[in-house]
Each structure stands twice: as C-alpha cells, then as structure tokens.
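Researcher: I'd like a structural prediction for the single chain below. Treat it as a standalone chain; there are no partners to consider.
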Amino acid sequence: MAAVIRRKRASEALELLDHIPNRAAKPLSLLIRQGIGNAKNNFNLEPETLVIETVEVLKAPMMKRTHFASRGRVNQIQKRSSHLKLVLSGEKPKKKKSLARKGQEKGKKNGSKS
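Model: Treating it as a single chain, here is the predicted structure.
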C-alpha cells in the first residue's frame, strides 16, 4: 500500500486510499490527514502543494500470546504491529511585504522621545 501512494500529491493519495478496500488503507489515510494538518499548522505550508516524499512501514515489537490447544499443547500467537513514517514536502506561501509608515524607524515606538 505504501508503494501506491509514494511520490503523489497528498490529496490524490487520499482519494486513492478511500477507494481501495485494503485493510491498510485506513491507517495510511489517517496518517496522511494528520501530516497535512501538521504541515499546515506547524510549518505554514499550503495543503494543495504537499507531495508525499517517502512512506516507510517498519517492524514494531510483537506481542506474544499463547493459545491452548487440544491434548495439552500450547500454540504461540504473534500479534504483529508496525511503525509508519511519512515525509511530506511542499511550498511555503510567499509572504506579503508590509510597507512601513514614513517617519517611523524600527526601534522607535509611536510617541516616544529620544
């Protein structure tokens, strides 16, 4: 699933994941939505320009459980989990230049005497 969304726009990847009936699609779409929100709030990036650079699915520790079988046997159940890593890139919006009023300098406040 990670290979399907790699190097795509974030909005395009979300559309793809919404239509894929795979079990891994839901956690990946939640991860992309969270990444878009973080990029917008923390780094002031435009959500429309975000592109998925890398998606990594790494092994996480397994939870080991036992299942008691017939004839006194014990089978082991390994509940696997994974770590997801997402890297988004995008363009910052261009800042508008604010024009300073004439007669004011940067270090002085209005009405101050020096």
